[in-house]
Amino acid sequence: MAEFKFNYLFLATAAVVLIAASNSPFAAARSYIGVNQFCRTSDYRRICTKMVKNATTWQEASLNAVTATLELAKRIQAVAPLMKPVLDEKLMKTCQDQIDSQVEDIETSFNALKRNDTASIHTRLGAALSNESCQDTVKESGVEFPLAKAFGYLSRHVDNSLAVVLQI
Q1: Which residues of 70-87 are buried (b: 16+ CB within 10 A; e: fewer)?
Q2: What is the pTM of this model?
């Protein structure tokens, strides 16, 4: 049997080729396959693409994204009262206030989008994105937060909506 000799030169060459290929314009183009054109600046491109559906205009993509975000926020708002057995009264109030505030911010953004009031859209979506008082308060109390995944998903939706509407 022939002696196996490891070729370090081959390994180094292969590593250089792989690194160069991953930084090529072709690699960047592959990362956008199947991604809606209005979601390329998003951190969560696949979710964003589902949110904007098959939008071909900025206005349509923005409306679809904010609508999807608002629908999710309202679903979370509807199930939030189910946390009462897990959270004490103060934590429950904090969480209910947060989701109510987020729904209001997203609704205001939606209405501002219809009026082409870009400053209000950015301000209110930014406020909805930065409002994490519930998660912070629950985390500090040491209680396991039952809607952590839902709130995280809502954050990604708001982030995607903001990425789409900022393309004005």
Answers
A1: bebbeebeeebeebeeeb
A2: 0.78
Tell me: the pLDDT tens digits for 10-23?
A: 555 555 555 555 55
Q: Say if residue 56 is exposed, middle or buried (CB neighbours under 10 Å; 0-12, 13-18, 19+).
A: exposed
Contact 48, 158 (CB under 8 A): no
Place of tokens 């998660």: 135
Cβ atoms of 158 and 111 closer than 8 Å? no
The answer for residues whose C-beta is within 8 angstroms of residue 32's C-beta and 6 or more apart is 40, 45
Domains and CATH numbers, the chain: 37-165 (1.20.140.40)
Asked if residue 60 lies in contact with residue 159, where contact means CB atoms within 8 angstroms, the answer is no
Site of tokens 């505030």:
101
Give the model's confidence band at 32: pLDDT under 50 very low, under 70 low, under 90 confident, else very high: low
- Exposure of 96 in the CB half-sphere (CA atoms within 13 A): 14
- What tens digit of pLDDT does each residue of 66-76 get? 999 999 999 99
